[in-house]
Amino acid sequence: MSLLDIYVLGAPVLREETKVVDEVTDELRSLIDDMFETMYAAKGIGLAAPQIGRSERITVIDVDGRQLVLVNPEIVLAEGKEREEEGCLSIPDIYGDVDRAKRVVVRALDRDGKPFEIDAEDLLARCMQHEIDHLHGRLFIDHLSLVKRRAALAKWEKLRKGDKSHTRKVVPEGVARHHHRDEEL
Ligand code: K1U
Ligand code: ZN
After folding, report:
1. What's the Cα-to-Cα distance from 14 to each of 68, 108, 118, 119, rounded to whole Å?
2. Cβ pair 103, 123 in contact under 8 A
3. CA of 30 to the centre of ligand 2 (A)
4. Which of 67, 169, 171, 181 is 20 to 30 A removed from 41 (C-alpha atoms)?
């Protein structure tokens, strides 16, 4: 398994529509394993293919220890509304309140290409909506009001300090980050 770099805001791949998966091959299963490893190392509860620079319609999720692989996911029912704070592994350290359906039913293929449906509420429903947005080139900041989106983007630019790179490295789990005095300057 390998840790993958995460694409960050500004990378064109995050704004592109993904492609429907015709067949879940061994190569894609191995990609799914790498996505889980990367998601856990990045301390996320979800990760979508565009976030690691891929264009397949695939996302992985783990809310409360339940691993979910969604290939070609579609929301077939959305009900209720709830506003909660969200973050995104592709826009680290930026948060905002997003309105989402409280409950969704999602139809997808699993890692073996088998169709299934999942009926979820609250955080899992929110996470699935956030990840399915990624598969259509949408980010949580697109749901914010103009004023809040501008503030979020201004904070992002400030945090980036002119860094124009489109990816970030994820530190493997269990590896302590060395503290460099330079980082304090
Ligand atoms: O797709 C991603 O960027 C992953 C993102 C998913 C997500 C976060 C919050 C609400 C819905 C979906 C994250 O996992 S960011 C990490 C995070 O904010 C979080 C972690 C544990 C519980 C709740 C949020
Ligand atoms: Zn995200």
Report:
1. 21, 21, 25, 27
2. no
3. 21
4. 181
Q: How far apart are CA 128 and CA 45, in angstroms?
A: 10
Whether 131 is a known active-site residue: answer: yes
Q: Is the CB of 47 under 6 A from ligand 1?
A: yes
Ligand 2 (single-atom ion) residues, CB below 5 Å: 88
- Beta-bridged to residue 108, according to DSSP, are 116
Which of 39, 51, 130, 136 has most ligand 1 atoms within 8 Å of its beta carbon, as the pocket-test mutant? 130
Cβ neighbours, 10 Å, residue 69: 22
12 backbone dihedrals φ, ψ, rounded to 5°: -55, -35
Which tens digits make up the pLDDT trace of 72-112?
999 999 999 999 999 999 999 999 999 999 999 999 999 99
